[in-house]
Every structure is written in structure tokens, then in C-alpha cells.
Amino acid sequence: ILRKGVFASTPAIFPAAQIMAGTTALSPSTETSSANILARPAAVAAAIARFQHRPASWRNGVTCVHMARFYLRKMGHKVERLPRLRSPRAARFALDQRGWRNCADMLDAQAGLTRLPAPAFMLPGDLAYCSSACGLGSILICAAPNKLLGWLAQAPEIEVWDVGFDDVEACWRV
Is the pTM of this model over 0.85? Predict the structure, then answer.
């Protein structure tokens, strides 16, 4: 169930030192360096600062894809330039040209991102995908456990959403 929430830190299941070292029993095979863990809060804060109080707009280039690209660049990833995505139709055309069905396929093709086996493995700063009625889907940034940052159909502005694991269809380690 998706609910608009207030950003609040929630205690982690495992101590941070174990997560950084990858020694938790449930840790996926993807390695996360301590430098990457330390850079995540600043990159999430930069995404919030840039997109906060800006309503989602195809015409102005304010979409979840633009936010994800901005965030990935802040995290040091080399991300290709976006084509002009000024309508859902243009976005569908750009996805179809590359052979992608939705934004999840786009993230699977991005070098440096590893798909996680389940949303339970997400750390703050990882990317998540939720499907949408238009078929493109929505990319969100994990802000805290069970809290995702981004746009959903229910709200025109960027929000932090309380999200259950069953609402997230796919997730990636950044």
C-alpha cells in the first residue's frame, strides 16, 4: 500500500559496519564500498534539493527518468544523455527504439547497476521501480527503509512514500 509519508530515519536491521563489510547473512552478492555508502546521503539530498517543489512535467523535463539520471551522475555513474522526452509518447518511442518495454528494462541495461533479488535488500540510495497505468513505470530512490522518493500518479510533486515490499517490482544497487 502506497501512502504519502514523512521522512524519518528508521533503525537498520543490521549494524552499518556489517552492511559495509558485506558480512550480514542476508547480504546480496553485490558489494557496496564504504565510500559509496557515505556518498549516498549527499546524492539523495541533492536530488531532493533539485526536484523538490517542482511538479512532474514532461514539457519541462521534470520526470522520474531525469531525477534518476541526475542522482546516478551525483553517484559517479556515466549515464548517457537523455533524448528529448517531452511527452509519454516520446518516452515510449525512446524506449521502443532501444528495445526496452519500460523503465525497469532501461535500468537493467545501465552499466554499474546490479538488480537486487528482492526489495528487502535495498539500502538508502538504491533505485526502485513501480509499474504505472501508462506502462512506462516510475523510478524511485530509496530514502530510508520502506521509504521511496519520487513521483507517483497520486501526487504531482516529488514526495517520500511509505511503500510495502509488494509494491516494488524491481530494485537496483547503485
Answer: no
Strands across the sheet containing 170-173 = 3-4, 155-162, 147-152, 138-144, 127-130, 170-173, 114-115
Exposure letters 1-15 (e unless 16+ CB within 10 A, then b): ebeebeeeeeeeeee
| Separation in Å, CA 93 to CA 131, 136, 139 | 18, 11, 18
Q: What confidence score (pLDDT) does residue 1 get?
A: 43
Cα angle 90-103-113, degrees, rounded to a multiple of 5: 135
| Ranges in the chain, pLDDT < 50 | 1-2, 6-30
Say what angle helices 34-51 and 64-74 make with each other, to 10 degrees: 140
d(C-alpha 44, C-alpha 52), whole Å: 11
Question: For residues 157, 114, 123 and 51, what is the CA-based torsion angle, rounded to 10 degrees?
Answer: -20
> Among the residues of the chain, which ranges form H helices?
16-21, 34-51, 64-74, 88-97, 103-109
Length reported for the chain: 174
